[in-house]
Fold this protein.
Amino acid sequence: MLDSRFNKISELENSVAVSQREAEKEKAHIVQQFTDLICSMKESQAKLIEVIQERHRVTKQKADDFIEELRMEIAGLESKRAQVEQLYQSKDHHGFLQSFLSLSSPLNNWKNVSVSSNLSLGSMKDALSVVKQIVNREMELIPEMKLKTLRKHAVDLTFNPDTAHRSLIISQDGKQVTHAQKRPNCPQRSELYPGVLAKEGFVTGKFYYEVQVKGKTKWVVGVVKESSDREKNYLSVIGGFWAIRLEDGIYKACGDVKITLKEKPQKMAIFVNYSKGLVSFYDVDSKSCIYSFTDQCFREKLYPYFCPGDNNEGTNSAPLIVTPAHHSN
């Protein structure tokens, strides 16, 4: 028995050592790839700047040539005007007519002469934009990066005791809820499920929050529309609920959609994009998306919804806890 445990320790330590070596190799590979990409982009940047400067130089040279020609014509016209005025004042009408005819000469038509000021590299800018979008999209496919992005929309929630089932206890800071004992009746409190809403509701934008479900055998988390009758409606989309639940060891989304998970979540994250009709659920530890409701049509205020489940003689006594969702810039 001892040998097997010592062997397991050695196996685990060896796995950590291998993981460390692989991490160093992967980091070196990524650094090299980004270094090469940055160098390539800088070279392309320098070449594009050179192209733009050359285009500007050609445009400027062309404009300078036109301006010089125009100034020469202006000087010639001013000289002819002075000669004509001098002949006119001499009273020699015959000489004036002869000289006027000799001074008259066809002029350039400058009406349609122009130089282009458009130096745009439109297709190149579009290509760079596409590259940026691809990189951003691929980055979001990395689970850690996805949650980091979503955490930018984190909101600070507290439970609303006026909406709590009579058997629920809300902590003093409004961050924990447990199923414990009977509470006095309240018209705003749900009588069918031991649930509670957050004080904060949302009618636009995006919001994200995290809930600790560690140590629980039964729970429901999600969002509910303001007008939903929680005393009568079953947990369904038609009833105005967008949630997932754990019950009897089985995870399900509203509509009794069974969800198969490799690991039991200890902390859940819920992200809502109101305008896109999206409600997504994540396992915070594995960074994986568990389930998403898509293409929903929200027309009223949504409230975060929490149900810690019944106490079940102490086997489900752990609280649901709204935890801070810190994010880095």
About this structure: The longest helix spans residues 2-89.
